Amino acid sequence: KSKSQAQGKFKAEQLEIKKIHIAGSGAIGSLLAGAAEKQGLPYGLYPRNPVFQVNKASIEKPEFEPAKTETPTPYFVEWTDGTEYPIRQINSNKPHLSPSDMLVLPLKVHHLKTALTQWLPLIDKRTPVVLLHNGMGGYEIAKSILPAQQPLLLATTSHGAMKRTSTQVIYTGVGNTQIGIAPHLVSHKQLTMPEWAKSVCHTLHALLPPVRYQTDIMKALWAKLAINVVINPLTALNNITNSHIAGEQFANERKTLCEEFAQVANACGQSFDAIEIEQQVIKVAGLTASNYSSMHQDVKNQRQTEIEAINGYIVNMAQKKGIEVPLNTLLTKQITARLT
Ligand code: PAF
């Protein structure tokens, strides 16, 4: 089944967002574009890096240039019911984003600095920006590049998508997306969500439901980090699916990683219990039993992994707080060694 026409008429009157710009055409970026195509929301899907070749004389005048290594356009997103939606990557028009556009960056933390620097001259200071990645550290990068008042949301998703071939992305598992306003923009006096945040959440929910708004998004990001700290390096190093992480074979590593995580997270102002985290890890490993984790896929395909944003982040924070995290340190070294 292939659909070239948008299925649903996007209910634009309920929303302020007129167009979604997706910076990065990996599996999740492509999935979002497929959802926009499905719902009839105008979208732009752009190559990850370089999106624009920055003019050396002035970063105010970026030259748009197609990335040479990206998937050729058009290609297809296969939905959970088997319907295929054709999506196109834009690589010739230089966009200018208004306050009623939104920019989503479904990019790994190590790609964010370049991407945000390239997008900055093209966005209005009121254009909402959404970061969507595993691990930590993206928020700090965005804060150092974007103007202080730029509308910024942080998000994490458990939807599964996979590039099957260079022309096909499959929606492998319906999950959910948790999203919240960047902490420096949250006013404790303001009890209701600002309109721009509502518009972004409504739009994302209409595209890829469910979207859960979190008043404390950092807590949600730490909770997701705990899952990745355990599942990702162990599946990548042992060449196994997520299901194995729930089993007896990894009981010791699982317990130690959860204890190290809880110690560091709590020293950073969070409040986690190692036993509860371990139960959550076992649950997610069960729910995603037949998946190969993203780090497994990166190692297998010899791509740069997210280790620095996951276990490496725990190691760095532990150092700052004077805490020993030997297993996180070992796994970070082992994963890093795989790609050198
Ligand atoms: O990175 C991943 O692969 C995912 O976040 C998760 C939840 C570990 C499932 O594979």
TrEMBL record:
Pathway(s) of this molecule: Cofactor biosynthesis; (R)-pantothenate biosynthesis; (R)-pantoate from 3-methyl-2-oxobutanoate: step 2/2
MF GO annotations: 2-dehydropantoate 2-reductase activity; NADP binding
Keyword match Protein biosynthesis: no
Keyword NADP: yes
Tree of life domain: Bacteria
Gene Ontology biological process terms, A to Z: pantothenate biosynthetic process
Domain Ketopantoate reductase C-terminal: 216-336
Gene Ontology cellular component terms for the protein in this record: cytoplasm
EC number: 1.1.1.169
Domain named Ketopantoate reductase N-terminal: residues: 20-182
Catalyses which reaction(s): (R)-pantoate + NADP(+) = 2-dehydropantoate + NADPH + H(+)
Cited InterPro entries: 6-PGluconate_DH-like_C_sf, 6PGD_dom2, ApbA, Ketopantoate_reductase, KPA_reductase, KPR_N, NAD(P)-bd_dom_sf
Keywords: NADP, Oxidoreductase, Pantothenate biosynthesis
One of the Pfam families matching this protein, by short name: ApbA
Family: Belongs to the ketopantoate reductase family.
PANTHER family: 2-DEHYDROPANTOATE 2-REDUCTASE, 2-DEHYDROPANTOATE 2-REDUCTASE-RELATED
Protein name: 2-dehydropantoate 2-reductase
